[in-house]
């Protein structure tokens, strides 16, 4: 049975009745998160989260269902709303019409059977999925169109869009070709005004019929001079309007083989510049073609996802130049081994993909094992190092039931990611994936129980200044406990929470309870400040700032006592939302910190858009301090952050030997087990280290 996530709101005075509705969906295979609305204030608060379905009954004394419906509409939320009414009203056509006109999706009798309710709800959930999918597609289309326009504007080719002979779009290269200083000077000109053909009818025919065509003629510049050009037209649309795309090139000079040159450029653009294998962009084309061929001919193919084991650790050892040399040598080995019609591509630093036609996975196991043996036997000479490596391989078959090639690559990737040891082979197994989905359901149930019983606890780890006296700074660390008080796997549970729409609820719990501890310490004469990590779901929520303002009013705590922490990867993915959050926090004197920083070469570019006073560097940079190049890399990063007037925090300080390095490197604050393990309260003696 496939496990599906459902976030269910129920408006009914009876908790037992609400649980009965939830049980209907759980028995049908839905991992159901239930919330029963108890009041108007409760409804207003809970609708800040994401929900999939509302079931409202007429058995309510505290809050009217139509008031809830009106609140949902006022917030512009797309949530299917099912109204359950007395049996007599359910058969009254005018009553039902009245509910439907107000926006209710379905009106059912309170005595309706469970199966009938489930079918009606599934119909509305199916439509909801389609609507949400359409919204995502429209966003992607809008983003694609924006990127296309940017590409058009920056293209070196002279490109225009023509509708009924008139220009509706011109890029700068087009204006430059015809010697117009400003594109606006060409507005209102027809294509006929810019082109002179020996046979004018040839030019008219190009735009009369919406087909691809080419014509050699002469262009007319702004000063009236003429020059030889070749016009190529393609059927297109611009802003939803059918038109012709026009690309104009000056005619070839004699002695230059432009076709050969263009073919060479196309070939180079499809290859990885380091290894000479196909690059990631061209791999997508290969996989699309393979999928089309398999579906049209019912043939077969298999994808290998090859991962170099422990490549990150190797890179630290041999450096960037050595890593590049190793990758080139390994790519050459793959070229020699796969030389019978297979397609090879480099996907990322340590990942390669091989597309093998006319074979199924079970036919390739011996061949993959032979490749692994060959790799382990080779000694790669890299700078002054002799390196031996192993590889792990994820394997997935193409089949006619696969919806897209990316799905096949994801299967192979998940397979290799699931192995626990080096030099492994893992073939994608759909049955195993289903079992894992069932396990997800167990984790979700565990998470729901944990939240209901509030089996959560917070620990606090001090963040200490290396530059003299500072505030009492702590980072809140969440722990989840089972019924016996044992810690649960936090990372897995948080992943499940995110997919079930519960991550934001957990983040807010951490903020609320961290501020309670701050209030307790303030009453005892201290002035602590607490860092609280939030995830992507909370980062994206525009309601967070307003909720925080209410929290500070309710607790009477100064906003500067809370520092909101989010990861660099989340900030880069949701940069606009992160920018709005940081600016809003700064306005209310509540600061922010970007964590796990510095792993990406574009980290500083992301930071340019975020006015965060604190930056916490990535643990991997601390781990690399064992090597001189690691010290150099961290020192360089800290210097740049100091120049940008950011206070830097270095986490995972586990040994005394690191302290002198961090002091000389310019770190402002440190955090780690060497100083203090996370504690149940904010009781660290900061004066001891001053």
User: What amount of the residues lies in strands?
Assistant: 15-25%
| Cα shape | globular
Would you identify the CATH architecture of the largest domain? Alpha-Beta Barrel
> In terms of per-residue confidence, which ranges show pLDDT below 50 for 5 or more consecutive residues?
none
Q: Portion of residues in helices?
A: 40-55%
- CA-atom Rg in angstroms: 31 Å
- In CATH, the topology of the largest domain is named TIM Barrel
Q: What is the CATH first-level class name of the largest domain? A: Alpha Beta
Verbal overview:
With 690 residues, the protein is α/β, with parallel strands linked by helices. It is built from 24 helices and 26 strands. It has an eight-stranded mixed β-barrel. A six-stranded antiparallel beta sheet has the order 7-6-11-10-9-8. Strands 2-1-3-4-5 form a five-stranded parallel beta sheet, with helices on both faces. Helix 14 (430-452) crosses helix 15 (490-499) and helix 23 crosses helix 24 (657-665). The longest helix has 41 residues, at 114-154. The protein is globular and about 90 Å long. The mean pLDDT is 86.
List the helices and strands and how they pair.
Blueprint: E1 4-11, H1 15-27, E2 30-37, H2 40-46, E3 53-57, H3 65-74, E4 81-85, H4 87-90, H5 93-101, E5 106-109, H6 114-154, E6 158-163, E7 166-170, H7 172-177, E8 195-196, H8 200-208, E9 213-220, E10 226-238, E11 241-250, H9 258-269, H10 280-297, E12 301-308, H11 311-337, E13 343-348, E14 351-357, H12 365-377, E15 380-382, E16 385-387, E17 391-398, H13 405-418, E18 425-427, H14 430-452, E19 456-465, E20 472-480, H15 490-499, H16 503-523, E21 528-533, H17 536-540, H18 544-555, E22 562-567, H19 568-573, H20 575-587, E23 591-597, H21 603-607, E24 614-617, H22 619-623, H23 628-643, E25 647-650, H24 657-665, E26 669-670
Parallel strand pairs: 1-2, 1-3, 3-4, 4-5, 17-18, 20-21, 21-22, 22-23, 23-24, 24-25, 25-26
Antiparallel strand pairs: 6-7, 6-11, 8-9, 9-10, 10-11, 12-14, 12-17, 13-14, 15-16, 19-20, 19-26
Helix pairs in contact: 14-15, 23-24
């Amino acid at each position: 049975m496939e496990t599906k996530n459902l976030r269910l709101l129920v408006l009914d005075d009876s908790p037992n009745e609400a649980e009965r509705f939830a049980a209907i969906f759980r028995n049908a295979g839905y991992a159901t998160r239930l919330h029963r609305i108890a009041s108007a204030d409760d409804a207003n608060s809970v609708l800040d989260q994401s929900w999939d379905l509302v079931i409202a009954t007429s058995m309510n004394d505290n809050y009217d269902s139509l008031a809830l419906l009106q609140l949902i509409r006022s917030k512009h939320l797309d949530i299917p709303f099912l109204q359950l009414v007395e049996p007599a009203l359910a058969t009254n056509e005018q009553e039902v019409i009245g509910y439907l006109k107000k926006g209710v999706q379905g009106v059912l009798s309170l005595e309706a059977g469970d199966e009938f309710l489930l079918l009606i709800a599934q119909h509305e959930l199916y439509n909801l999925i389609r609507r949400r999918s359409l919204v995502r597609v429209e966003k992607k289309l809008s983003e694609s169109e924006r990127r296309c326009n940017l590409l058009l504007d920056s293209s070196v080719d002279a490109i225009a869009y023509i509708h009924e002979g008139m220009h509706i779009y011109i890029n700068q290269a087009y204006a430059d070709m015809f010697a117009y200083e400003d594109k606006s000077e060409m507005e209102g000109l027809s294509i006929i005004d810019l082109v002179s053909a020996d046979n004018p009818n040839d030019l008219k025919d190009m735009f009369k019929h919406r087909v691809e065509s080419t014509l050699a003629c002469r262009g007319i510049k702004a000063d009236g001079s003429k020059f030889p050009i070749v016009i190529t037209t393609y059927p297109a649309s611009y802003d939803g309007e059918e038109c012709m795309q026009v690309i104009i090139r000056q005619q070839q000079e004699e002695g230059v083989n432009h076709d050969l040159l263009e073919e060479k450029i196309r070939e180079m653009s499809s290859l990885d510049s380091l290894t000479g294998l196909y690059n990631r962009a061209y791999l997508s084309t290969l996989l699309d073609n393979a999928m089309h061929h398999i579906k049209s001919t019912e043939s077969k193919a298999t994808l290998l996802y090859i991962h170099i084991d422990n490549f990150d650790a190797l890179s630290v050892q041999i450096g960037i130049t050595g890593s590049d040399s190793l990758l080139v040598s390994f790519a050459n080995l793959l070229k020699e081994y796969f030389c019978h019609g297979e397609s090879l591509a480099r996907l990322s630093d340590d990942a390669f993909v091989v597309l093998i036609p006319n074979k199924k996975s079970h036919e390739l196991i011996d061949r993959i094992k032979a490749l692994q043996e060959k790799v382990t036997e080779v000694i790669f000479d890299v700078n002054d190092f002799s390196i031996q490596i192993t590889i792990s391989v994820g394997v997935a078959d193409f089949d006619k039931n696969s919806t897209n090639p990316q799905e096949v690559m994801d299967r192979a990737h998940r397979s290799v990611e699931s192995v626990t040891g080096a030099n492994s082979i893992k073939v994608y197994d759909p049955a195993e994936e289903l079992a894992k989905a069932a396990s997800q359901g167990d984790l979700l149930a565990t998470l729901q129980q944990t939240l209901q019983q509030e089996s959560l606890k917070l620990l606090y780890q001090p963040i200490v200044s290396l530059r003299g006296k500072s505030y009492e700074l702590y980072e809140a660390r969440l722990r989840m406990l089972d019924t016996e008080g044992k810690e649960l796997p936090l990372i897995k549970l948080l992943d499940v929470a995110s997919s079930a729409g519960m991550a934001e609820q957990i983040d807010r719990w951490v903020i609320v309870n961290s501020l309670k501890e701050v209030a307790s310490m303030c009453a005892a004469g201290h002035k602590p400040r607490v860092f609280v990590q939030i995830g992507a779901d909370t980062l994206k929520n525009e309601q967070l700032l307003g909720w925080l303002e209410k929290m500070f009013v309710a607790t009477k705590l100064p906003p500067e006592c809370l520092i909101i922490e989010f990861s660099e990867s989340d900030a880069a993915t949701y940069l606009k939302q992160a920018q709005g959050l940081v600016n809003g926090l700064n306005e209310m004197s509540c600061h922010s910190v970007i964590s796990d920083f510095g792993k990406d070469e574009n980290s500083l570019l992301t930071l340019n858009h975020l006015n965060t006073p604190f930056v916490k560097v990535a643990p991997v940079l601390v781990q690399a301090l064992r090597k001189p190049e690691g010290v150099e890399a961290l020192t360089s990063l800290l210097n740049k952050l100091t120049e940008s007037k950011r206070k830097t925090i270095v986490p995972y300080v586990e040994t005394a030997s690191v302290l002198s390095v961090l002091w000389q490197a310019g770190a402002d604050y440190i955090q780690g087990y060497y100083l203090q393990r996370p504690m149940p309260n904010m009781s660290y003696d900061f004066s001891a280290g001053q």
